[in-house]
Specification:
This protein has 147 residues and is an alpha+beta fold. It is 19% helix and 18% strand. The strands form two sheets. It has a four-stranded mixed β-sheet with strand order 4-3-6-5, with no helix packed on it. Strands 1-2 form a two-stranded antiparallel ribbon.
């Protein structure tokens, strides 16, 4: 160990005394980059709030543009047609959430002019805050009264 340390000191002294003066800048251990490519982060396109038909006879018809391939059965909405029932609740019907309050599976009575935002949640990650009740899908509605 002692001999290795002496050899290091010896080579360090020889390396600095050989042809190098104190006026030169010290040699830096760096890697030269040939090319740096900067990529722009793509933003996800957000669709404008789809049309709400204020002249419709039911809430389902008023927000039909948001619902996709959902269907209405016995005044309840089935969002996920590929499932017969939610594995946890046994119910195939989506729940309605109006201004943060869970209403249930029945269509709520709302003034269509007061609706400002509609979100239809289908995936497990999106419906996770609603637990087992939201396993078949959630329809979130925000009204102007909430704001």
């Amino acid at each position: 160990m002692r001999q290795a340390l002496l050899l290091l000191v010896f080579f360090a002294v020889i390396g600095t005394s050989k042809g190098q003066s104190n006026t030169q800048e010290p040699v830096r251990d760096t890697i030269a980059l040939k090319e740096v490519k900067v990529t722009k982060v793509k933003k996800k396109k957000v669709k404008a709030n789809a049309y709400i038909d204020v002249n419709a006879s039911t809430l389902f018809q008023a927000i039909r543009a948001h619902m996709g391939n959902a269907r209405l059965v016995n005044n309840k909405v089935i969002l996920l047609a590929d499932r017969r029932y939610a594995p946890t609740t046994g119910s195939p019907y989506a729940i309605w959430v109006v201004d943060g309050a869970i209403i249930g599976e029945e269509l709520p009575a709302l003034d269509f002019n007061s609706i400002t935002k509609v979100r239809v949640l289908k995936t497990i990650i999106e419906t996770e805050p609603y637990g087992f009740r939201g396993a078949s899908g959630v329809i979130e509605i925000t009204t102007s009264r909430a704001q």
